[in-house]
Amino acid sequence: MDNHNHNVETENPNHDVEDENNVREPWNFWIGLLVGLLTGGLAGAVAALLLAPQSGKRTRTKLLRQGDELRQQAAETVEDAMAQARTNVRHAQRDVRKQAAELEQRGQAILDEQKDNLATIVEAGKNALQGNRA
Known about the structure:
- The protein has helices at about 1-10, 15-50, 55-134.
- By secondary structure, the chain is mainly alpha-helical.
- The longest helix is centred in the C-terminal third of the chain and has 78 residues, at about 55-134.
């Protein structure tokens, strides 16, 4: 039975692709329509702005105001990014200090352990020397 299914798949390898295309076609139509409407609306808005019966002074004022708004938004975005960067730096500094303190504690523990080992060795050496003299 597997051979029969395999042969069917071999006979029409594009069967799955055709099914996917049939399912996608309605979505492609609606997505294309939506993109077309949005593009047309945007083009219409730009044309209306450029061709509106406003005086040159009025249009320049409007463009200057919009430019100021964009500059203000850009400045706010930069300020937000800088604040986030400062916060990230503070967190990194805190993490580094914490890791440094942990490393210092581990290093101190290893040093103390080695001192104890050395003291034990020295004591054993003293005892061995005293045992040889006696």
